[in-house]
Amino acid sequence: MLIPLKTGEPTRKPPVVTVFLITVNVVVFVYQLLHGVNFTAAKYGAIPYELTHAVDKLPLFPYTHYLSLLAYMFMHGGFLHIIGNMLFLNTFGPNVEDIMGHFRFLLFYILCGLISVLVYVIPNFRSEIPLVGASGAIAGVMGAHLRALPGTRILCLFFIFRVMLPAVVILLPWMLLQFANVMMREQSNVAFIAHIGGFIFGMFMVRKFEKRASVPSYVEF
Length: 221
Hints:
Strand order of the largest sheet: 1-2-3
Number of strands: 3
Number of domains: 1
CATH superfamily: Rhomboid-like
Shape: globular
CATH architecture: Up-down Bundle
Radius of gyration: 18 Å
CATH topology: Rhomboid-like fold
């Protein structure tokens, strides 16, 4: 199994938004541990039935269930869940942030998370199981990376070996695996369809968020 560790390509600026997002996810997870992971998931997670039927089964004044569309992407279901997600964000986030700029990257990340939850909610509109996790938003970052920077070298852990591989070698099989899991329709607590939604959105929208190089008003010679 390939575990991405970090990008091998230097960035022009420090990935401050990537670090910020990782920090927020970790802080929120600590909050979950202190108050109960299952309880906080039911309290703040995105529940399809509530969103599609405009009801809040666990009223939290002034909190509204629609805020779960944002809150869910900063919560996780356990240590393996958050560790895996943060490894992928730490690996693929910096280079995507570098080509977008800090603010555009933050906006892009949140939009990917929103699209991924909507893709999950629509076919599961009767479900009362809360959705939590940054996977959809991170999948969007991965999709953007695949389209914009497919040849970027990524340091990975393969069993006990450290190897450098092009991003496309990691990302394309990952995406195909998500499709395979959806097609098999097996019962799982992983929202593979949300991954697909985020990934495709990120892949097709990355060009819209890239920073445009400024055109000089004069030429030096």
